[in-house]
């Protein structure tokens, strides 16, 4: 079964039983995250094009490097169909003796920039990446509405 979120400019479906967290502020940027029962999550942050999104990836990757100095970060192909020209990076690092994988992607439309951040324990991440991708694709397909 699926649940649906529709608010703050986002509209997407996600697995029932996952926890949804929203930033209830109407200010930009706007953030929504969805957490699996195992702790893996996808965080979506929506920016207006006027917010100068050029450095979003650099800032996010710098924060990862600061938090996890040993993180191995590399550019990766986008796994979302039709989004191959978008910016995507993947990081692997240890946290509490677990190998963690994170992926950050920037997706641009005419009006918005969506920054998607996925994270999970490595084995869990591999199982859930298609779910995360579906949430992001569903969000991108519904960004034509006014928030």
What does this structure look like?
There is one protein chain. By secondary structure, the protein is α+β, with helices and mostly antiparallel strands. The protein has one domain (2-141): Mog1/PsbP, alpha/beta/alpha sandwich (Protein Transport Mog1p, Chain A, 3-Layer(aba) Sandwich), CATH 3.40.1000. It is built from two helices and nine strands. The strands form two sheets. It has a seven-stranded antiparallel sheet, sandwiched between helices. Strands 1-2 form a two-stranded antiparallel sheet. A hairpin with a 5-residue loop joins strand 4 (30-35) and strand 5 (41-48). The longest helix is centred in the last third of the chain and has 20 residues, at 122-141. The radius of gyration is 15 Å and the shape is globular. The model has no long low-confidence stretch (mean pLDDT 86).
Name of the CATH first level: Alpha Beta
Q: Please write the string of helix (H) and strand (E) elements.
A: EEEEEHEEEEH
What percentage of amino acids are in beta strands?
35-45%
Integer-rounded radius of gyration: 15 Å
Morphology call: globular
Topology:
Blueprint: E1 2-7, E2 10-15, E3 19-22, E4 30-35, E5 41-48, H1 56-67, E6 72-75, E7 87-95, E8 98-108, E9 112-121, H2 122-141
Keywords:
single chain, 147 residues, alpha+beta, Protein Transport Mog1p, Chain A, 7-stranded antiparallel beta sheet, two-stranded antiparallel sheet, 2 helices, 44% strand, globular
Q: Summarize this, please?
A:
This protein is α+β, with helices and mostly antiparallel strands and 147 residues long. It is built from two helices and nine strands; from the N terminus they run βββββαββββα.
